[in-house]
Each structure stands twice: as structure tokens, then as C-alpha cells.
Amino acid sequence: MFNQVKDLFSKSKKGIGIEIAPERINIAQLRKQGQGYKLTTLYSHEIPEGIFQGGQIAEPPELAELVKTAITESKIKAERVATAVPMREAVIRIIPIPAELDDRELRDMVLNHEAGLYLPYPREEVDLDYQKLGFFVDEDGIEKVQVLLVATRKEVTDIYLDIFEQVGVQLDVLEINSFAMIRTIREQLRQFAPQEAAVLVDIEFDSTEIAIIVDGVPQFSRTVPIGTFQLQSALSRAMNLPTSRNTELLQGMTIPNTPVDGMRTGATGINPGMAALLRVLGELADELRRSIDFYLNQSDNLEVAQLLLAGPGGGIGQLDEFFTQRLSLPTTQVDPVAALSLEIDRDIPSVQRPGLGTVLGLGLREV
Questions:
Q1: Is the Cα dihedral 49, 357, 216, 124 positive or negative?
Q2: Residue 205 vs residue 15, higher pLDDT
Q3: In whole angstroms, how far apart are CA 143 and each of 31, 60, 136?
Q4: What predicted TM-score, i.e. pTM, was given to this entire model?
Q5: How many Cα atoms are found within 13 Å in the side-chain-facing hemisphere of 113?
Q6: Is residue 17 classed exposed, middle or buried when 0-12, 13-18 and 19+ CB atoms within 10 A define those classes?
Q7: How far, in Å, CA of 92 to CA of 265, rounded?
Q8: What is the CA angle 85-340-291, rounded to 5?
Q9: Fewer beta carbons under 10 A from the terminal one: N or C of the chain?
Q10: What is the pLDDT of residues 306-323, one digit of tens each?
């Protein structure tokens, strides 16, 4: 453990995974069963308006009480917890380090020398962790090792540490939510070749987190301020309905198969609510295209093989077909239950499954 970042890459003992999002707390507990896993507990607790502001925790004491209530209502007896901070709160970089350094020298080089060159904040204001990746030979013929560097501001990690101290459980793991998602779908990611990138599109409540993944490692990340709340708000306004944090209306929608030209001109022949929803989805698609083009322009001999839709908005009916048509890229909706061959006692609707990737990935840390 380096400073307060809690063992981002280590294994841990049995506990629970808790995902804290602006609109909900998700709790998952898994256990090993044969060659796979069984989901023993899955629980969700609503977070009211005001606890989060601008995507950040504004009322830590109130949130701690909500987490405590959620754990009690889930009826889980656990003293250890894995949780995650949003990707937008993290700095993720892949840096080259001379390969001849031993582990102690590498640690000193990364944490005390190299890290400061890649951080937008002073070194003393962040918590850091790192993981060695593969070796390579640079253009000067020098063998180096790639190191994945992860940093969050201390003021962010301290909030999470304080929350779980108030709850009365031990915070075992504090990682980045996209890392938890990648753990959940790692078998799916292994199907891609080294020169093929997968784009993880995590549509959350008030934002979409985009991560371009190569060889199971996020190489590029960006947060776009369009999430399920913005999608449903556009839908509600067009239908003269009150705006609500509850996105059940959105979850029940199915995106029509509309020609690309029709989507861009508005000549879709559909109701005003769906037209408004398609406009916002079109904006999200445009931001996705910009992110992909930006990354590809900096990368040699790399192609995007697939878009992976995740998060609470990732399961909207036929959203995969919308992005396939709009971006001319194969798109699929993530199914964490199938990806983990997870045994479950009750059916989980397909529209809800993409939203479970992070909490199940956190739960895996505690198996």
C-alpha cells in the first residue's frame, strides 16, 4: 500500500463489494463454486438528491449512514469491503521504466521520481499505486518495462476512507471503477488480438466513462457529461413529464432501427420523446467518435474491434444496434452474469445486467 490507495492490484480476504454511484449504492457478495462463482447477495439502495453534487460526494456523513443502512438491509455479515472511485477522479498513465531495475529501485523510481512528471497535481497531494506490465525494446534498443501508474487526489481517497470508518467496516480495496469492470469482463477482453482495441462505454447516472482497452489495460480514458439522467430528462421534457432521478422510464425504452440520415436530420417519423432521446444519444455517439479518433491518431497499427456498452444505461433496448449503425463499429451490451458464468438464484433482467459490471468486479476482489 502506498499512502492511502488501498492495494489496487493485490488479492484480499472474504468481504463484499460496494459500488457508490450518485443515484444508488450497489452491494454484491460472491463465493467460489466449482470452476465459477455464485452470487449469494445482490442489493441496491437508492441515494436521494443532494448527497452528490456535480458527480462528487457532497455530504459524506449522510452517505455513510446510507451505506450503513444498505449493509444492514442486505443482511450481509461482513467486516471487509472493496469499493471504487470514479475513473474521472483518477489519473491513469502507462510509463516506460528501465528494465534492469530491481523491485525496490523500480518502486523508488516510479513513486518518487517518474510519477511527478505525469501528474497534474503536486506529488504530495495524491495517493499512488502501480503495476508492472510487459517488457519492450524502445527505439534506441534499450529494454524497458511498461508500468501502469494510478493516482487519485488525497482529498478524494480520504473521503472514501472516512465514510467506511464511520460505517464501521474495514476498507480492504479502493480502486478505480473501470478496473473493477475490466475484471468482470476479462475473459471477453481476451478474445481481442494485441493490435485490437475494445472501447468500454460505461453509461452511468450523470456521465459516460470511456476507456479504450488494449491487452486488458486501459490506454486512454475520458468522461463525457451525458448519462442516464440526461437521457431521461430529454425524454421527459419532450413528453411534458416531470424530471425524475428514477430512470425506470428510460429502462423501458427500445431504440428504433432508424437510418443514420434520418437520425441526423430529425426526419425519423417517430414521437417527440424518442426523437429527443435520439438527439442526446447522437451527441454521445459524436463524443465517442471524437475520443476514438483522437486515440487512433496517436497509435500505430491499431484498430477498434468492438464497443462494449456497460453501466445502467448500457442495457437500453437495441442501444447496441444504434451505436453499430451510427459509428460503423461492432457493438455489444455487456452481460456480467454471462461473462462470469455466474450462478444466480433469481433472474436478472437483461436491461439491468450491464449495470452490474462494477459491483460484481468489486465483489470478485473479496472472494
A1: positive
A2: 205
A3: 41, 46, 6
A4: 0.91
A5: 10
A6: buried
A7: 38
A8: 50
A9: N
A10: 999 999 999 999 999 999
Could you report the per-residue pLDDT of 252-284, keeping only the tens digit for each?
899 998 655 554 444 456 789 999 999 999 999
Whether the per-residue pLDDT at 4 is higher than 60: the answer is no
* Cα dihedral across residues 99, 100, 102, 104: positive or negative: negative
Tally of CB atoms within 10 A around 238: 16
Given a cut of 60, whether residue 176 has pLDDT beyond it is yes
Cα–Cα distance measured from residue 200 to residue 334, given in angstroms and rounded to the nearest whole number? 9
Say if CB 29 and CB 363 are below 8 A apart: yes
256: left (phi over 0), alpha (psi -120 to 50) or beta: beta
> What value does the mean pLDDT take over residues 197-222?
96
State which amino acid sits at residue 246.
Answer: N
Coil, strand or helix at 253:
coil
Q: Judge whether 200 and 169 are in contact, CB under 8 Å.
A: no
